[in-house]
Amino acid sequence: MTATCDFDVVVVGAGPVGLVAALLLAKQGISVLLLEKERSIFPLPRAAHIDHEIMRIFQSIGVADDVASSSEVSTRYEFLNVSGDVLMRFDTGRAAALSGWPPSNMIHQPSIEHVLRARVAECDSIDTRYGTAYRHHETCGEVVTVHFDTQGKASQACCRFLLGCDGANSAVRANSGLSLVDLGFSERWLVIDTKVIDSSRLPRHNLQICDPERPTTSVRMGAGRHRWEFMLKAEEDEDRVSAPAFVANLLARWDVDGAVELERTATYTFEARVANDWMQDRVLIAGDAAHLMPPFAGQGLCSGIRDVENLTWKLGAILAGRANTSLLFSYQTEREPHVRAMIDLAVMMGKVVCVTDPDLALARDKNLIETRRASGDASGAIPNPKLGTGLLQATSNIAGELFPQFTHKGSRSDDLFGHGAWLIGESIGIDGNTLGAAGVSIPSLSYFSPLVSQWLDDKGYNAVLVRPDRVIFGGGNAAELITAYADGLYQEARVVA
Ligand SMILES: Cc1cc2nc3c(=O)[nH]c(=O)nc-3n(C[C@H](O)[C@H](O)[C@H](O)COP(=O)(O)OP(=O)(O)OC[C@H]3O[C@@H](n4cnc5c(N)ncnc54)[C@H](O)[C@@H]3O)c2cc1C
Fold first, then answer.
1. Which of 191, 311, 338, 436 stands the most exposed, by the fewest C-beta atoms within 10 Å?
2. Residue 222 CB less than 6 A away from ligand 1
3. Nearest-atom index, ligand 1, CA of 172
4. Quick check: 309 and 469 in contact, CB under 8 A?
């Protein structure tokens, strides 16, 4: 695809977000240089939960079954007070959610990264350099030159776009003059990861124990692991809380001696931050490089993977000459409101859990118990907010929502419908050239046809146009949809009206 560049895209960081980005780009035939400063997978405990939408994205890059085999479906998430009363309960269940996968899936992040690395190794269009650190870059016209070094040996490569997936301390972000805005949440926690010996002695559901003396999290993870997290007091420093006696004391009330084996501990400061700008010229940032959130909603990694799902098809359309580079402005305008909604949810949950004043905790308990009595429990997947303004048909009330993935006797509709954008509906009379120019296909619905027709009827539309990231561009007349979508890809303005 490139005439004058070594690579179409350089991705910095082979954490989960960078790995998924590289795979989503490679799927479109885009050449990628993937730089990772470490040789091994980051071993410290982090993400434990991914949602249905992330499983669908994993499905699209061919790793969902491997991920599912080392993960565990979570059916309930509870917030309890110190007496064991339920303050909040989320019944997620096992049934397939909108994306065709269970709402809530517990994972062991290093195991997932192992699966992703193996998949990357199979892709000829990804040149992966482990043990190679990005240093700096400069942009000249349409070319970004990236400087990096491997064991002290300096090198460089030029590309059309640079994508920083280099985590919370992103050098790509700093070198691009971008910065994170503090949204005002900061709490230190100790994370204790264990290997499970006897799962029958562990809590069956994910729990937040809203104990003002010691706010605590207990989460099931995939791959035979269980995690506890304990909020730290100001005077408790890292050395003290990592000591075996301190850890044993924290776990004592869970009565799991002999049921688990300590794997490792780590302290984290849980924060909420979002980058002011997510793009500078031809340089973009995604994942923890662009936003941080406390882990109470299990959405930090999920948000990063949604970022690259949103961004990579746009890069693909631009590199294939089917879209103007101004399409990239829609990356932040679409994603930031979604990310902020997830940060708000995580901070709301964090503020429920992290109360340390006993009187305030009593008032919180009373309030939440009354609310639960009046409103009942939430069920199903957590609400998935619509995207913000961007390449969406503003007149359509379903624009920006996720298009469902239908399931039938173990089959999933995305596998049948294929990659790229879809125009789906009744008697669509649009010629192949028009569709091809916009990168849109009319998939054969086969045995999913009755389910799709029912969905269209329920929504009240004859046709829908679904973007490659499975977000609905809009619904209505097929010819008008394809015209508006094609215009949106090419137009110079920042957003589609
Ligand atoms: C305790 C805890 C629990 C969490 N639980 C959840 C959860 O349940 N669900 C969820 O969705 N999220 C959760 N998260 C958040 C999640 O772990 C992160 O959002 C996710 O790891 C971010 O992925 P990333 O790829 O953006 O960044 P990282 O995983 O940080 O990867 C960045 C990569 O870039 C590399 N890198 C950095 N600088 C350079 C450089 N100069 N050159 C080359 N490479 C470089 C790093 O070595 C690293 O491999 C949790 C986080 C914590 C701390």
1. 436
2. no
3. 41
4. yes
Domain architecture of the chain: domains with CATH: 7-73+105-181+272-328 (3.50.50.60), 407-490 (3.40.30)
> E strands of 251-317, at which residues?
260-275, 279-280, 283-285, 291-292
> 13 CB under 6 A from ligand 1?
yes
pLDDT tens-digit profile of 38-57? 999 988 879 999 999 999 99
pLDDT in tens, 264-322: 999 999 999 999 999 999 999 999 999 999 999 999 999 999 999 999 999 999 999 99
Q: Is the CB of 110 under 6 A from ligand 1?
A: no
Taking the C-alpha atoms of residue 229 and residue 296, their distance in angstroms, rounded to an integer, is 11
Q: CA 348, CA 203: separation in Å to the nearest integer?
A: 24
Say if ligand 1 is within 6 A of residue 166 CB.
yes
Write the pLDDT tens digit of every residue in 127-158: 999 999 999 999 999 999 999 999 889 999 99
Mean pLDDT across the chain? 94
Q: Alpha carbon of 106 to those of 71, 76, 99, 112, 349: distances in Å?
A: 5, 11, 17, 11, 18
What is the Cα–Cα distance from 59 to 37, expressed in whole angstroms? Answer: 27
Cα–Cα distance, 394 to 287 (Å, whole number): 27
> What span, in angstroms and rounded, lies between the C-alpha atoms of 27 and 249?
49
pTM above 0.90, yes or no: yes
Residue 169 CA to ligand 1 center (angstroms) comes to 10
- Give strand ranges (E) for 197-299: 206-210, 216-221, 225-231, 260-275, 279-280, 283-285, 291-292
Is the CB of 465 inside a 6 Å radius of any atom of ligand 1? no
Q: Say if ligand 1 is within 6 A of residue 388 CB.
A: no
DSSP 461-495: -SEEEE-TTSBEEEEE-HHHHHHHHHHHHH-SSSS
DSSP code of 394?
T
| Tokens linked to 136 | 């700096």
Cβ atoms 269, 252 nearer than 8 A = no
Q: Per-residue pLDDT for 494 more than 90?
A: no
Q: What is the pLDDT of residues 57-84, one digit of tens each?
A: 999 999 999 999 999 999 999 999 999 9
pLDDT at position 3: 54
Q: How far apart are CA 283 and CA 281, in angstroms?
A: 6
